[in-house]
Amino acid sequence: xxxGRTHIYRPGNVDVKLWRYMDCMKFLDVLQERALWxxxxxxxxxxxxxxxxxxxxxxxxxxxxxxxxxxxxxYEKWRKRGCVNCWHASDCESAAMWSLYSxxxxxxxxxxxxxxxxxxxxxxxxxxxxxxxxxxxxxxxDAYDPPKDQRGGSDLIRAKELxxxxxxxxxxxxxxxxxxxxxxxxxxxxxxxxxSLEKLxxxxxxxxxxxxxxxxxxxxxxxxxxxxxxxxxxxxYTPVLK
Length: 242
Description:
By secondary structure, this protein is α+β, with helices and mostly antiparallel strands. It is built from 8 helices and 13 strands. The strands form 2 sheets. Strands 1, 2, 3, 4, 5, 6, 7, 10, 11, 12 and 13 form an 11-stranded mixed β-sheet that branches.
C-alpha cells in the first residue's frame, strides 16, 4: 500500500504473517503508549545496519557537488536519523526468535502486513520522509545499482535495496518498518509512533517456557486496556504423550 506518506509493501504481493517477539516489559510499554517504538539505527547491535552500498555512496558524492542540500548526508548521519521497528515474517513461530528476543516469560504479537496498512493513523508522526515497510534483503549490499534519477531523501528511505543485511542474519526473516527523526528530536534514541492496537494485533502468543500464570496476567492486562485479543501459550516444547 502506498498512500500519501505511507509506503507499506507486501513481499511478492503476499499478505505475509508477522511476529513481533518481546519481553513482558516491552509488551506493557506497547499497551500503555498504544504505540510502536522505533529504535534509532545506531542503537542496534549490528554496526552495519542499513549501511550505504558503494554505488549509493558514490552517487551521493556526486549529488553533494551538484546539489548542496545532499552534501551533508552521510552514513553516520543516516544512522542517527533513521529509526526502525522490526518484525519476523513466517507462517509459524520460531524457536530462535523466542530465545533471542522474548526471554523466558515473553510474548509475541501476531499480525499481517495488511494489518500494518490499517494500523497507523497519524502521518504527522512519521517524520519528514514518511513511513516505509518492506522485507529485508540478505546479501552483499555493494551489489546494489541505484536508479539514475534517485535523489536521496524520501527516495532513499523507500529504496528496497537499502534495507539489506548480511547473510549471517537471514535467520531473522525480517520485515522492517522505517521512519526518521527530525532535527527537533536530536539526542533521542528513537521515537514512538501511535497505532491502533485493535487493528494491529490479531493474537498474542506467550513464550513456551513461561509459567502458566503469565498467560493469565497477560489476559488481565488486555482487559485493563480494553483490548479483546485471543491469548494462547506456545506448545513448542510440550512433551508428546506416549
